Amino acid sequence: HDQLLTEARAVAASIVASSPTAAAMTKTLLNNASNSTLDQMLEFESYATTVAFLTPEYEEGVQAFREKRAPDFARAAAKGRS
Question: Over the stretch 23-52, which tens digit does the pLDDT of each residue have?
Fold first, then answer.
């Protein structure tokens, strides 16, 4: 039980640290997967990927990688909403 809780917390922390837009799109894709065909899901995934590449969070991720630092996706997402 303790090991499961520890692992669940680690997964939750990973999700919280990720891009809010990418996490939301992933959740939407997973929720739609059981009611969609493979072709529909590939189309949805292609669209989601295109949208993700246009977000400030993507730019922050690339910049953070180049600067060898942890990305601040929350700040980037807030910047995109202003």
Answer: 999 999 999 999 999 999 999 999 999 999
pTM: 0.75
Query: In the structure encoding, which two tokens stand for residue 47, read together?
Result: 């669209």
Query: How far apart, in whole angstroms, are the C-alpha atoms of residue 65 and residue 5?
Result: 30
Q: How many Å apart are CA 62 and CA 70, to the nearest integer?
A: 11
Three-state SS for 55?
A: coil
Name the class of domain 19-81: mainly alpha
Q: Residue 15 and residue 73: Cα distance in Å, rounded?
A: 11
Domain boundaries, the chain: 19-81
**Any idea which residue has 């899901």 for tokens?**
41
